[in-house]
């Protein structure tokens, strides 16, 4: 398993399910990374931990969804109208902001091995999602760089000492910092 997949596995084990606002914030983070046009939300991943995490989040929000397996990919779909995220309070504390960033990273992030040239990146489909995620990450004092791609936008972090603070990761691999 890749280092990035290991990080996503660890993030997917963080238990936030008793805090409904944190659950909504993490789903919101996933949504910041995808194209949200249309009535149906579609999220695709190869990562089993990731699809299981989104499954649990949607269950906690009592949102009906469908999961399909297409080759190596999992596709989860649900109706946009079923989401009630407008009442998320992002000023409710650092844990809520971390939930948004965690959702975005799980949804569209990657990270390279700390022993190599370090790089954490999150790809985002819409500029407004990128801008909002940058504002949230900046609240942690982490310097975020931007990259405009042909069909998406990316944010990336090269300071490994600061970015894992955003995620609150405690694995043995992270203690190398």
Commentary on this structure:
This protein is 40% helix and 20% strand. It has a single domain, classed as Homing endonucleases (Endonuclease I-creI), CATH 3.10.28. The two termini are 21 Å apart. Strand 6 and strand 7 form a beta hairpin. The protein is built from six helices and seven strands; from the N terminus they run H-H-E-H-E-E-H-E-E-H-E-E-H. By secondary structure, the protein is an alpha+beta fold. The strands form two sheets. It has a four-stranded antiparallel sheet. It is globular, with a radius of gyration of 15 Å.
Topology of helices and strands:
Elements (H helix, E strand, L loop, with lengths): L2 H10 L7 H13 L7 E6 L2 H13 L5 E5 L2 E7 L14 H15 E3 L8 E5 L2 H12 L6 E4 L4 E5 L2 H8 L10
Antiparallel strand pairs: 1-3, 2-3, 4-5, 5-7, 6-7
Write out key terms for the chains shown.
177 residues, alpha+beta, Endonuclease I-creI, 4-stranded antiparallel beta sheet, 3-stranded antiparallel beta sheet, 6 helices, 20% strand, disordered C terminus
In short:
The chain has 177 residues and is an alpha+beta fold. It contains six helices and seven strands; from the N terminus they run H-H-E-H-E-E-H-E-E-H-E-E-H.
